[in-house]
Amino acid sequence: DGGITQSPKYLFRKEGQNVTLSCEQNLNHDAMYWYRQDPGQGLRLIYYSQIVNDFQKGDIAEGYSVSREKKESFPLTVTSAQKNPTAFYLCASSIDPPDRGFSYNEQFFGPGTRLTVL
Amino acid sequence: QKEVEQNSGPLSVPEGAIASLNCTYSDRGSQSFFWYRQYSGKSPELIMFIYSNGDKEDGRFTAQLNKASQYVSLLIRDSQPSDSATYLCAVYGGATNKLIFGTGTLLAVQP
Hints:
The structure holds 2 protein chains of 2 kinds. Helices cover 0% and strands 49% of the residues of chain A.
């Protein structure tokens, strides 16, 4: 089955702790994205990657870091610098990188990770 | 002005009726338009996309796009209780080359 997997489904973080959220896709998509969803605020883009070993900041990158060492994987680290990390984190992928000319940019989402700060 | 605006709802319709969900966007250069359905506690699921002015039908769903008015809508015919969810409008292209989401409209279909 092709798709996007995220783990863990639920994650609890203590103050001052870094945590890493996993995202894997076997759709052979070039582009991958991380979004954060808070109640009443819709989805906000944290980071995106159009190709292996390259990534760009989204609208709310502060306190987060990513890597793209493999096409299939795009892990997100929530660092202690992120002051309000409690949220629903969503990973997505699309066939076409958004900056490579005209692209319809149909994005498909993983099941999400719900992060709670204790 | 928000980049993508939706009425937060809830929009309540009786079972079997037509549900009409609306979305406006601010960037005239936007190229593609998406509707996602999100059940409570779950991730968004892509249900419709449209690129050209006019209507696009897929089963009980019809997406309508009017670029001159910067307006996109989703009609759900013969609404079922299982359609009860939050519907997210997303717009791509224009100045940002990013997918911009609205805050979603909560639809409640009453049996």
